Amino acid sequence: MENYRKTLILKVQYDGSNYAGWQRQINAVAVQEVLEQALSKTFNRTMTAIGAGRTDAGVHARGQVTHSILREPSNIPDDKITKAINSNLPDDICVSDGKIVDFKFHATADAIAREYSYSIHTKASVFLRNYSNYFKYPIDLSRLEEAAEIFTGIHDFTTFSKNNADTKSYICNVEFCYWEKITDFQSILHIKADRFVYGMVRCLVGAMLDYARGARSLKDLSESLDAKDRSLTSPLATPRGLAMERIYYREDVI
Question: 210-251, pLDDT tens digit by residue?
């Protein structure tokens, strides 16, 4: 229909274990590709889904937000959209909320903050292996909390990130960064920032775990952060413990 334009906004959760990350790829299956196939089948037209952020292979999401442009009216009632899309998705991807709006919205550009979690466990578990990082060394949670304080606030995270030619600035404002004890052998990091640079959370977790097991000092972490030198980073934590929790916008769009 000429001049018809509306925006489909979705909140998506997925188990990233079997995917090569969020962004569609040539030689591997990605979450974006599978979601777009489901959308195209649901609306009977070619659809593109733009995500609020990329996640790497093996990384999960509880609160990914996407948008798609609708250029023709849909015959699906608004309250049935989520169910209709989910009927075309595999069990490891699910739309938890969705709506069609009249205003312009961009899932990536309009985001003002993002929140991630990272889970670790120190007792081997078959059931946690895809969703938490098994760490074989004893961990003092108070040491993890001490390290987390270093990374709170406005910093240049060049040292604790992966190089990305498209990144113009590595300065991020970390609103909170703290660990929560779940059980005697499980802990989870909660971290929120206005933006994240490539590999940042996994780099930070790797550094905090190095400090927790006595391989680095707080002074070392602080000086390394200020140095903006990737040779001073720690090994990246595995992707399986990382989850995109929530995307923040100025208005509560979804």
Answer: 999 999 999 999 999 999 999 999 999 999 999 999 999 998
Structural domains of the chain, count = 2
Helices 200-212 + 141-150 axis angle, to 10? 130
Provide the annotated active-site residues.
56
- The whole-angstrom separation of Cα 33 and Cα 38 is 9
- The enclosing domain of 124 has a CATH number of 3.30.70.660
Q: 11-43: per-residue pLDDT in tens?
A: 999 999 999 999 999 999 999 999 999 999 999
Residues of the chain falling short of pLDDT 70 = 1-2
